[in-house]
Amino acid sequence: MKKTLAAICATLLLATASYAQSSATLTISGKVVPINTIMVAAQSGYNALDLVNGETLKVVGIATETSNDKLGYSVTLKSANAGTGTQAFLKGALTGNSDTVNYSITYGGTLVALSSGSATVTTATGRTDKTGIDKNVAITFSGGWYAADTYSDTLTLTIAPN
Q1: Residue 22 included in any domain
Q2: What is the pLDDT of residues 88-121, one digit of tens each?
Q3: Number of domains in the chain
Q4: Less packed terminus of the chain by CB within 10 Å, N or C?
Q5: Which residues on adjacent β-strands are paired with residue 141?
Q6: Distances in Å between the alpha carbon of 141 and those of 73, 77, 102?
Q7: Domain assignment present for 21
């Protein structure tokens, strides 16, 4: 009985071995998540502009665009005060103050032309390197005799893949 059982087991092992493959495959993979980020580092004096004497190409921030999208990305700049207009301006915080300070914006050295309060300031056809691309945000305005107040505008930069 033991010999018969051993013979049956040996036969089964040989039968199983005859189904073994001579090669096999293993697919390995990894995933890189999409990265499209923009950061803005405020520069010295961004919140202490000389409204009386004016400023020329005053760098108020440095934007860092970072994208790993092989098709590229775009960056849009929006002025809160410009609303649906074409002119960015600083406005006073005090109720009843109608004074405004019109200003122009350059992004990466290029003059920004607002339409409906915003403009596409970057259209890239490929990815950035890992550290991103730095672009200066600068403003220019003439000085004036304005009512005592604190004047401001909010610029929003948005990055999106193409």
Answers
A1: no
A2: 999 999 999 999 999 999 999 999 999 999 999 9
A3: 1
A4: N
A5: 55
A6: 30, 18, 6
A7: no
Q: Are 77 and 123 in contact (CB under 8 A)?
A: no
Half-sphere exposure at residue 13, Cβ-oriented, CA atoms within 13 angstroms: 6
CATH number for 68: 2.60.40
Q: How far apart are CA 106 and CA 104, in angstroms?
A: 7
Pairing of strands 54-67, 133-142: antiparallel
**80 belongs to a structural domain:** yes
State the pLDDT confidence band at 156, using cuts at 50, 70 and 90: very high
Residue 94: give the domain boundaries: 36-161
Chain segment 26-56, per-residue pLDDT in tens: 999 999 999 999 999 999 999 999 999 999 9
